[in-house]
Amino acid sequence: MTLESLEGLEYDDSSLVERSVARDYDAFKLLYERHVARVYTICLRYCGNEDEASDITQEVFIQVWAKLENFKGESTFSTWLYRVTTNISISYIRKRSPWWARSIEWSKAGNEEQMRMNETYFEHSLDKKISDLPKQARLVFILFAIEGYRHAEIAKILKISSGTSKAQYHRARQLLKEKLKND
Amino acid sequence: MTEQDYDKLLDASIADLPKEVAPPRDLWAGIDHAIEMRASDKKISAGNFRQIAAVLALVIGGSWFYYADTGFNSTSSNEVNLTMLAADIDQGFKLQKAEILAVYEGQPALTLTWKDQLRELEVARSSVWNELKKNPNNTYMIQILLEVQQQQLDLIKNVHTTLNHDI
Fold first, then answer.
1. Which domains does chain A have, with CATH numbers?
2. What ipTM is given for this predicted complex?
3. Do B106 and A105 make contact, defined as CB atoms within 8 angstroms?
4. Coil, helix or strand for B135?
5. Which of B9, B13, B31 to mutate to test the interface with A (most CBs of A within 10 A)?
């Protein structure tokens, strides 16, 4: 069945997943089209950089295609996909070079274009404030307040204690409120 | 405003955050290409081992042929010339590699594993280069050195130019 004929029909995610597991590439493309904006937004919030978010989004879908048979249907496909997105984003942030190395790379690359691109997304003032938070506080805040994970889950994802997660969330809230007061 | 007001304002702002932001560029072309590449990458990965094994086999075989041909006799002036040639090749390659890496620095690559592949090829190159330092008259080794160096340069170019072209 071609992409055109798939588009004409109302397939839910689980049917598209089933077809994708059977290596139906057109079905996978429909899944991509359905979820790319949400996946990209999650990546963008974690990394705070449009170029990196685009790269991570691509990596997410590449890995999902490769490991789709790991999806056991215990949750909805979107829940699983966004969890995979979170894991890949956090793993990417951990592996990326330290801030000073990136600063050198950015200045070398003449990063005005990147700065301009980021501004388009960070027009939303709270997202801008979140992106300015310290790394761990930022990750915990996004996971808890925006993505809806519980502290116990965040502790597992970030390999910290549940208490640290709560403390970092509290810290993030305080910092954000300070920023709101200064507006 | 009280502290509670700021809490409410923060909660309202969180609720207002956009759930979906469209990516600034088409990402599918890159995904499509990478899936295709990775499918062949698996073959390459297995092939990589074979490639490195082949290089090492050539190193060992080349050394054997060299000794068999020369009977361990070599003229010292030839040796000096070939030592210089090998050193020039090595130096030239290092410069060329650094230049190409600088060109693509910070640009997205088609695969996340290209640096691992580059390291593997560098291990192979080092083996050849070490062998050449011991036996500078061995022209087989110079050929192999050139081949492995070219593979590295091609890898750097291919993982970058293909992706940038497609997106």
1. 1-97 (1.10.1740.10), 122-183 (1.10.10.10)
2. 0.78
3. yes
4. coil
5. B31
